[in-house]
Amino acid sequence: MDEGQGRARGEGQDGRDAAARRRGAEDRTRKEVKPRAPRAPAKGGLRNKPANASSAPRHGLARVLSKQGLCSRTEAARWIQDGRVEVAGRIVRDPEFPIRSDGAQRILVDGHAIDAAPRLYLMLNKPRGLVTSTQDERGRDTVYRCFDGAGLPWLAPVGRLDKASEGLLLFSNDPAWAAGITDPDTGPLKTYHVQIDTVPDERVLTALVDGVDAEGERLRAASVRMLRSGERNAWLEIVLDEGRNRQIRRLLAAVDIAVLRLVRVAIGELVLGELPKGQWRLLELAEAQALFSNVHVHDS
């Protein structure tokens, strides 16, 4: 083999060796490649926002004022539309204007910063014939007539008594407390004394507790007992563990009994007692707190 052939063969071998080394390096590179981290989304795409004040939940301005115990939501909407409310230095006229729940936006009413009103809890012996409403579109007298000249802050009814009913009715400017009292699952029991137009037998009293169907709805009382009776009518004590509209009247009507008088005498352990009709008194804090301990559990 001459020198030229040997040189050519050597160069060929060197080329093959170099190619083999390149393939080995490529194999090692492929084995060592790690998955890429996810690419950041393009500008304007979805991304994780840092938790800051701008992400705080928002509520409508009228609702915020009402939750502070300053007024009803309807009254708050009227203040806002009248231009009496400022948010962060400018007048806002939209009752649904979003307000951050972190309190970062300064709110003024008539130029004064709002502060949560002192929480008040009040019981009224509601007279028959008054509507449980702040205003009545038909011009009928409302329960607020009982507070004329008292100088009380705004208070909302906690639950209802219809116009023909009477007795214990609560008021407060504490929305959370009111929600707990009226909650159908955990609220305290309500006790009523009811005069009816007949003298029922034990079978009827049992049916009221077992439940009856009225207008496609199942109605029942937690308990019923006879208080006293005469020749033509009787007084029952009926305890409810829920608060449906006109529940006692509809329950009794379903067994052909008419209500002559309906008086709420207790909510939980809070009793109407000797409070005169049309009169009210503030609850002690312990009395208000005790109502939350009188929770009931529905039968399964």
Automatic annotation (TrEMBL):
<dbReference type="InterPro" id="IPR020094">
    <property type="entry name" value="TruA/RsuA/RluB/E/F_N"/>
</dbReference>
<keyword id="KW-0694">RNA-binding</keyword>
<dbReference type="InterPro" id="IPR006145">
    <property type="entry name" value="PsdUridine_synth_RsuA/RluA"/>
</dbReference>
<dbReference type="InterPro" id="IPR018496">
    <property type="entry name" value="PsdUridine_synth_RsuA/RluB_CS"/>
</dbReference>
<dbReference type="GO" id="GO:0003723">
    <property type="term" value="F:RNA binding"/>
</dbReference>
<dbReference type="InterPro" id="IPR000748">
    <property type="entry name" value="PsdUridine_synth_RsuA/RluB/E/F"/>
</dbReference>
<protein>
    <recommendedName>
        <fullName>Pseudouridine synthase</fullName>
        <ecNumber>5.4.99.-</ecNumber>
    </recommendedName>
</protein>
<feature type="domain" description="RNA-binding S4">
    <location>
        <begin position="59"/>
        <end position="118"/>
    </location>
</feature>
<dbReference type="GO" id="GO:0000455">
    <property type="term" value="P:enzyme-directed rRNA pseudouridine synthesis"/>
</dbReference>
<dbReference type="GO" id="GO:0160138">
    <property type="term" value="F:23S rRNA pseudouridine(2604) synthase activity"/>
</dbReference>
<dbReference type="Pfam" id="PF00849">
    <property type="entry name" value="PseudoU_synth_2"/>
</dbReference>
<feature type="compositionally biased region" description="Basic and acidic residues">
    <location>
        <begin position="1"/>
        <end position="35"/>
    </location>
</feature>
<dbReference type="Pfam" id="PF01479">
    <property type="entry name" value="S4"/>
</dbReference>
<dbReference type="InterPro" id="IPR020103">
    <property type="entry name" value="PsdUridine_synth_cat_dom_sf"/>
</dbReference>
<dbReference type="InterPro" id="IPR002942">
    <property type="entry name" value="S4_RNA-bd"/>
</dbReference>
<feature type="region of interest" description="Disordered">
    <location>
        <begin position="1"/>
        <end position="60"/>
    </location>
</feature>
<dbReference type="InterPro" id="IPR036986">
    <property type="entry name" value="S4_RNA-bd_sf"/>
</dbReference>
<dbReference type="InterPro" id="IPR042092">
    <property type="entry name" value="PsdUridine_s_RsuA/RluB/E/F_cat"/>
</dbReference>
<comment type="similarity">
    <text>Belongs to the pseudouridine synthase RsuA family.</text>
</comment>
<keyword id="KW-0698">rRNA processing</keyword>
<keyword id="KW-0413">Isomerase</keyword>
<dbReference type="InterPro" id="IPR050343">
    <property type="entry name" value="RsuA_PseudoU_synthase"/>
</dbReference>
